[in-house]
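Problem: given the chain below (164 residues), write out its structure.
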Amino acid sequence: MKQLTKTALILFSMGILISFSTMMNAQEKQSLEKMLEPFPAAAEGMVRYVIELKKQSDESLYKVEIIPGKVMNVDCNHHSLMGKLEEKDLQGWGYNYYEFTSDGQTRSTMMACNKPKEDRFVSGETQIIRYNSKLPIVIYAPQGYEVKYRIWKADKKMKTALGK
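Solution.
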């Protein structure tokens, strides 16, 4: 009987945790949708990518690198996607968003390759921006492209340059 009561209590607790978690996810989704309202919908042929950042205790130590690109079948050379990542102002709101444009052309080194071509992510122009967990980072890119990102963190300790 004790085992049955213990099992029932555990199942009941798990049910409460799951429903609480589901409720929190729904609230977070509504909150994100509300924050995205001022941003324009993606134009035809474009996709809107959104990066949500976790709150940090000292966000001045962090930066975000936006990396647009595309998976392409390429040889062993180092390839980069030609294109432009442009910061745009969301008129009347004081927010920024980013737009990546590319015609899909690449540039590469010219080494002789003795390996077969393979699918790899080929990045375009990147941009490092301020870390701000209060606002989503919104990037528009053509369909078929991807947007990746990296978080950079500085050390709290500053070093002194030598004057000569």
